[in-house]
Amino acid sequence: MSSDAGEKYVSVDFEVFGNVQGVCFRMYTEAEGEKLGVTGWVKNTRQGTVVGQVQGPAEKVTEMKYWLSKVGSPSSRIDRAQFSNERHISKLEIRGFGTRY
Asked: pLDDT tens digit string along 45-83?
């Protein structure tokens, strides 16, 4: 963490479309989030997509957005990723990165 007390964070919701269920997408998303040092959560939907939220420093959230839209898990096929509700926050609202059910 930066010692700059005025540092702001970014929060963004996401939904990933394509072949993203049954391919360890959530597990790899958790691992990537932890590697980048962002917080958040990830969850499968009944519609066959994966949704979640990411919070952290803007540059790290941008890296995670790229990973969600272009990389994913090795067996996944990402058609597109939608990001919404992007906002600045003064402190992290989520602790760690986990899977929700």
From this structure: 999 999 999 999 999 999 999 999 999 999 999 999 999
Q: Give pTM, 2 decimals.
A: 0.91
User: Residue 30 phi/psi, 5° resolution?
Assistant: -55, -50
Which residues are known catalytic residues? 26, 44
Residue 101, Cβ neighbours under 10 Å: how many?
Answer: 5
